[in-house]
Structure formats: structure tokens, C-alpha cells
Design brief:
By secondary structure, the chain is of the alpha/beta class. Helices cover 30% and strands 13% of the residues. A hairpin with a 5-residue loop joins strand 24 and strand 25. It is globular. It is a single-pass membrane protein. Keywords: Glycoprotein, Leucine-rich repeat, Membrane, Receptor, Repeat, Signal, Transmembrane, Transmembrane helix.
Length: 746
């Protein structure tokens, strides 16, 4: 009996152990098969380290770009890996996948019918996808964010949105879609962001009129007919480059100075639009011709005058009501206290955020920014000219409006104990608000500004507040009252890159970290130069303007602020001139010439930054001998000499990577610092070159190629853990001790 009992318990234990090992160690077999199929159809790319066509366990073996929860694959991020091929036909087997980001690759072919059924985020932007949107999209009932922009999708869009009641943001921009909008657009009752610009859509936009949109871009299409009155409630609206009929404009039409009639209000093209046909038809009643006496004529003239007067009064009332609503909604009407909560621009968890290139467009060249005439009396205008300027710029912007009183309280009246640093635009203070949030306040000391200069300041705020990139410090708010001009940024516990490189108190950054910092900054510049519309130059790039956070991810500061320098006070300009002595090494040869494309100067400054990372030297160091003070002049002749090139390398990273990698890095540097600006490559090419370099480093590490390998710690590859759907950067182990710092002081 005892033997039977012991045998039974042994069997139970062994069986339980087997089941437990299967539960803990193995990814769902159907999901493994789906990834194997994807890997095969992507032509077995070396970038997908760990992937196999047979066998393997994605969760247990940490396949590149794959994140799991227990035995389920929940994230698939293969962004920017230069992948080719197509997406296969087994993605629907990824039943637990929540987020799929395969953007910025070279994938071709159609979007497969088989998509992850429970996905909340799908990003296939910037590929070579063709054909149309599959009908199976309507089955993704949990989908919240969809980005198919910058592909070669074409043809009329079918009724594929009927089941997407949870969809919040959708980007179909920069494709070749044609025809009218399908009626299923009207079923997207939770859609707040829609981007359809740069397609060939025709017909009416009435199906969009009932949606709770906050961002709508339909620019550069062939839409026609009337502009729905509901569009007046959309805070961020771009619709230039279409064929809307001037006679059908609603009473809230924009001021003519912001909407060129010849570009945005023209006769619609001839089209058999079902959307237009759904509109009520304006009937014309024809009666029999009768003679009419003088009394009848007088009655008609008088009646016509009365009707015209009523129409004018009605139109005036509607316009004033609209303006009042707009200003009240913006928090900029007469009762405004200029105090807004200190909150993030949008409340969303990392899992709910998706990067959309078009989501970042500030305004159309035709419409924006829209400015409604202010509604306040002349007495208000006389008492506070600066406040009226702020109100006049009343089109809602993403930056929050703070009061001086709020900022004084949060910074202890801008006390020395809260001072983080001083730079070329003014002082930066740490601000702690009652709700526990911590911000960095840049106090820009300006001269007394004219009305036009006030507008220029607000335009800068408008532009910078819409920058959205993981390697750019976001602008949260601003203050412009009582002659004060302040910008409020996220506070980052960080260390400036120049301190991490040039001060002995910090541990030397590894070669892998330096490469990753370089590509992070390069991606930020490429975003400013290529994605932002209109393009934006940084114009003050330097290592002091790059903050490394606790995970050593780079964050670029002061984007778009260089235009404010001429408006600063003399005291600030003197301080700026002192700082500029140390920044001499970043200045491109063409600096000061009229009509120069500042983006080319950014590329030169980035090349200097690469030299800084390679050599550990300052761009300009007057403590050195005269011929070695300027880093570019000293290094240029050494970049293509093998012996001199090796001697240039920072002693802290010497012999940690192969000469082949060093030589390729030197090639990138040499192109960026070309004295003739036309010979410098665009930042997009620089980004691709650095990505290829990182791939070669990873290949050397994995294959054990000849030549030294980087030291201990995680490498520079993009395969490391990334929980944020928006983030495009690798996380690193902490290297230097971080100091409390924030927005650049320089």
C-alpha cells in the first residue's frame, strides 16, 4: 500500500513539474509560429537577433524587439531596422499582442488581412506598403491608435471602420488614397485625432462633422462642398489646399487674412460624390410669370431690405457667439485669470501613446495659426497691452498658460536656492508646485517688446509646444504678462553631456553609450529638419544643450529658441557673448551670411559633437596650444590618417572597438564638418549611417570578430527592453552620478 501511494505521489510530482516548466518557460506555440513566419517573410534579417525559422522561445530567449508577459507576446517593436520583405499571413495568431510598431522600414506589399485581433496600437508608418486598407481592420475592436502614414496605399477607402468604436487617433496621411470618405468614418465616436493630409480624397467631409475631434488635418486633397459648422469647435484644424466652395462657407469662416481665397475657397471639381448627394438639396421654385405693379415692386424692395438686414444681424450674432466660445474655451476671455492647472499636455499612459509624424505638424501654410479677433473693450486694451497680445493669440495651443503669481510661489520668488543655472537666454529655476509636480522655468530677460515682437514670442511658444520627440525636452507651458516672458519645461534629473564628457568627477562614458547618444541626438535633429512642418533648425546645438537622464538617454534642449536672442536685454547679451566664446567651435563657416539654411549649420555642429564624443576634447579650448584650440581644425587633417586617427581617440575608450568601426565613424564626422555646406549630407542620411555603424558593432560583438570589443555593460543595439511604445531609444545602465539639472543653462 505504501509503495502504491509513493508511486502515485511520484507520478503527481513529476507531472506537476513538467506542467510548471511548460507554463513558465515556453511561449504560446501559435505565437512562436507567427513570429517564425514573419521572420521568414522579412528575408531573415540579421537585425532580428535571436529570431529563428524553427524552434526557439521568443519570451524565454528575449528575441529582439519582442516583449512578453508570462508566456504571451504583448509588444512587438521592430522600428527603424531597415527591414525588407512583407508581413506574412500569420499575425492574427498573435492573440495577446497589444502594440505593434514596424514603422520606418522598407517593407512592401499589402497590409495583410490577418492582423493581431486584440491590438490597441498598430504603427506601420514610413514603409513601402501598397494596395489598400484590408476589410479585416473592422474586426480590431480594441484598436485605439492606427498609423499607416507615408506609404504607397491607394484607391478608395472602403467601409473598414465600422467596428472601431475605441479608435482615438488615426493617421492615413501621405498616401495615394482617392475617392470620397466612406460613411463608416461617422461611426468613430471616440476619434480625437485624424490626419488625412496629402492624399487625393474628393467629395464632402460631412461624415467628420459629428466626431469629437481635437486635431484634424485634411489639407492638400480635393475635398469640396461646404465646410461643416461643427469644424468651428475643433481646436487644431488644418484644411488648406482643397476646393471648398466660397458660397457655402458657414458664418464662422476664418478671417480672410489667414485664408487666401484663391487657395482654399474655389469651385469644387465635378464629382459624383455620394457624400455631397446626401446633403439636402436646395430647391428652386419657379412660378408663372406675372406682371407686377409699382406697389408690388415697392413691397419686394422693402421686404428684401428687411430680410437683408435680418441676415446681417443674424450673421453678426453668430460670429460674436463663435468668437466668445473660442476665447472662453481657450481660457483667454475677459474673465480669464491666466492660471491653468499644471498638468501634462495629454493624460495618457505610455501604452496609450503613439508617435505620429503628422500629429506633430503645427499648422498648415494656408490656415495657421488661426487667430480670432479679440472681444474686449477699448478700456481693457489700454490697461494691459501685453495681456491683449496674449489674448489676441487666442487660438488654443498645447502649452499651458501660467501666471507670474503661480511661478513666483513655485520658485520661492525666483530665489538663488532654486537657481539651476544661467545661460544665453536667461536664468533657469526649479519650480515645485502644490500638486507635487516639479518643472524647470526658463526666465528669458527681454527688452520691452513691440506688438509684433510679442506676436513673435507667442509664435515661438506655439511652434515649440508642438514638438513631440523622445529626444527633445518638451515645453509644458509659458507666461507672458507684466513684461515677463518665461518658458516652463519638464524637470529632468540629469547631467549635461558637456559635464559628462569633460569633467573628471564623472565616470567615462563607454563607446556604446557615446554611439547611442549620437544617434539619439541625430534622430532629434532629423525630426526637426524633416518631420516638422515647416522644417525647424535648432541653431544652437552643443553638448551643453544635451541632457542625459537617469538612463543616459539624450534630451535636446532649447529647440527653436535661437530666434529670441535678438530680443533679450543687454545684460543677457553680455552673458551670452561670454558663453559664445566657448561655443566658437560649433559655428559653421557660413555663419552670418544672409539666406543661409540653418539646417546645414546644425549638421556642422552635430559633426563637432561627434568629434567631442570621439576625442573627449572641448570644441574650443583656449588652455591648449594655439594650433590645438579649435577641435575641428586640429582633427580635420587626422581623420583620414590611420595612425593619427587612433591617437585622437579619448583615452577612456581606446581599444574598446575595432579600427574598422573607428574609420567608418570618422567618415561620418568628415562629411558633417565639410566647410562647403552643400557637401554636408542631410540628417536623415546621417541617422542611417549611424544605424549601420551600430549594426556593425553588434555584429562584431555577436560574431567575435577580430578587433577589440566594447567593455562590460549593455551594448548600443536597439534590442534592449523598451516598455514605452513611443520611445525609440535604448536604455542603459547608470554610468556617471547624476546631478539635479534640467533645461539647458547655456
Amino acid at each position: 500500500m505504501r509503495k502504491q501511494s509513493a508511486s502515485m505521489w511520484s507520478t503527481v510530482i513529476v507531472f506537476s513539474a513538467i506542467m510548471a516548466s511548460q507554463t513558465l518557460a515556453f511561449t504560446n506555440p501559435s505565437e512562436v509560429t507567427a513570429l517564425q513566419d514573419l521572420y521568414w517573410n522579412l528575408n531573415l534579417p540579421s537585425e532580428l537577433r535571436g529570431w529563428r525559422t524553427e524552434g526557439g522561445d521568443p519570451c524565454d530567449e528575449s528575441w529582439a524587439g519582442v516583449s512578453c508577459y508570462e508566456s504571451s507576446i504583448i509588444y512587438l517593436k521592430l522600428r527603424g531596422l531597415n527591414l525588407t520583405g512583407f508581413l506574412g499571413h500569420q499575425l492574427s495568431s498573435l492573440c495577446n499582442l497589444k502594440q505593434m510598431d514596424i514603422s520606418f522600414n522598407k517593407i512592401w506589399g499589402p497590409i495583410p488581412d490577418e492582423l493581431p485581433p486584440n491590438a490597441t496600437h498598430i504603427n506601420l508608418a514610413r514603409n513601402n506598403l501598397t494596395y489598400n486598407i484590408p476589410n479585416s481592420l473592422s474586426n480590431l475592436k480594441y484598436l485605439r491608435h492606427l498609423n499607416l502614414s507615408h506609404n504607397f496605399l491607394s484607391g478608395p477607402v472602403g467601409n473598414v471602420f465600422t467596428g472601431l468604436s475605441n479608435l482615438r487617433e488615426m493617421d492615413l496621411s501621405f498616401n495615394n488614397f482617392t475617392g470620397d470618405l466612406p460613411s463608416s468614418f461617422g461611426s468613430l465616436k471616440n476619434l480625437t485625432g485624424l490626419y488625412l493630409q496629402n492624399n487625393k480624397f474628393t467629395g464632402s467631409v460631412t461624415y467628420l462633422s459629428g466626431l469629437p475631434l481635437l486635431d484634424l488635418n485634411i489639407g492638400n486633397n480635393y475635398f469640396s462642398g461646404i465646410i461643416p459648422d461643427h469644424f468651428s469647435t475643433i481646436p487644431n484644424l488644418w484644411m488648406g489646399g482643397n476646393n471648398f466652395h466660397s458660397g457655402d462657407s458657414p458664418p464662422w469662416h476664418f478671417p480672410l487674412e489667414t485664408v487666401p481665397i484663391e487657395q482654399n475657397i474655389s469651385r469644387p471639381p465635378t464629382t459624383e460624390s455620394s457624400a455631397i448627394e446626401s446633403y439636402p438639396i436646395v430647391e428652386t421654385f419657379i412660378t408663372k410669370k406675372k406682371s407686377m405693379g409699382p406697389g408690388g415692386i415697392a413691397f419686394i424692395v422693402g421686404g428684401g431690405t428687411l430680410v437683408a438686414s435680418c441676415i446681417v444681424i443674424y450673421m453678426s450674432i453668430r460670429i460674436n457667439q463663435y468668437r466668445a466660445r473660442r476665447l472662453q474655451r481657450s481660457g483667454l476671455n475677459n474673465n480669464t485669470t491666466h492660471s491653468l492647472p499644471v498638468t501634462a499636455v495629454r493624460d495618457s499612459s505610455p501604452a496609450e501613446v503613439e508617435e505620429s509624424p503628422q500629429m506633430l505638424t503645427f499648422r498648415s501654410p494656408i490656415l495657421g495659426p488661426r487667430r480670432m479677433p479679440p472681444i474686449y473693450n477699448s478700456r481693457t486694451q489700454k490697461t494691459s497691452k501685453r495681456k491683449s497680445v496674449t489674448r489676441k493669440h487666442g487660438f488654443p495651443m498645447r502649452a499651458k498658460l501660467f501666471t507670474i503669481a503661480d511661478l513666483q510661489s513655485a520658485t520661492n520668488s525666483f530665489s538663488e536656492t532654486n537657481l539651476l543655472g544661467e545661460g544665453s537666454l536667461g536664468s533657469v529655476y526649479k519650480a515645485e508646485f502644490p500638486d507635487g509636480q516639479v518643472m524647470a522655468v526658463k526666465n528669458i530677460n527681454m527688452v520691452t517688446l513691440t506688438f509684433k515682437e510679442e506676436e513673435q514670442f507667442l509664435d515661438v511658444v506655439w511652434t515649440v509646444s508642438r514638438l513631440k520627440h523622445p529626444n527633445i525636452v518638451p515645453l509644458i507651458g509659458y507666461c507672458a504678462e507684466h513684461g515677463q516672458h518665461l518658458l516652463i519645461y519638464n524637470y529632468i534629473r540629469s547631467v549635461p553631456l558637456d559635464e559628462a564628457l569633460h569633467y573628471s568627477g564623472y565616470k567615462s562614458l563607454s563607446w556604446g553609450l557615446r554611439l547611442q547618444i549620437a544617434i539619439g541626438v541625430a534622430q532629434a535633429l532629423d525630426y526637426l529638419h524633416s518631420t516638422v512642418s515647416p522644417p525647424l533648425a535648432h541653431s544652437n546645438l552643443k553638448s551643453a544643450n544635451i541632457l542625459l537622464d537617469e538612463e543616459l538617454m539624450p534630451h535636446v534642449c532649447d529647440c527653436g529658441l535661437a530666434i529670441l536672442r535678438p530680443l533679450t536685454s543687454n545684460r543677457v547679451k553680455i552673458k551670452a557673448s561670454e558663453i559664445a566664446i566657448g561655443d566658437t567651435g560649433y559655428v559653421a563657416p557660413e555663419h552670418g551670411q544672409p539666406g543661409v539654411d540653418s539646417r546645414k549649420s546644425d549638421i556642422y555642429a552635430f559633426g563637432v559633437l561627434l568629434l567631442e564624443l570621439l576625442t573627449g576634447r572641448k570644441p574650443f579650448d583656449n588652455s591648449r596650444q594655439r594650433e590645438e584650440q579649435c577641435l575641428v581644425k586640429w582633427a580635420s587633417s587626422r581623420l583620414h590618417d590611420s595612425e593619427s586617427l587612433e591617437q585622437m581617440v579619448d583615452p577612456g575608450i581606446k581599444r574598446t572597438f575595432s579600427f574598422r568601426i573607428l574609420s567608418r565613424f570618422a567618415d561620418v564626422v568628415s562629411l558633417c564638418i565639410q566647410p562647403v555646406k552643400e557637401f554636408r549630407p542631410p540628417m536623415s542620411e546621417v541617422v542611417e549611417s549611424l544605424k549601420c555603424l551600430i549594426e556593425k558593432v553588434n555584429m562584431e560583438q555577436s560574431s567575435g570578430a577580430d578587433g577589440p570589443r566594447p567593455g562590460p555593460g549593455p551594448g548600443p543595439g536597439p534590442e534592449m527592453d523598451e516598455k514605452s511604445f513611443l520611445s525609440t531609444n535604448t536604455r542603459f545602465l547608470l554610468s556617471p552620478d547624476l546631478t539635479n539639472s534640467s533645461v539647458d543653462e547655456g
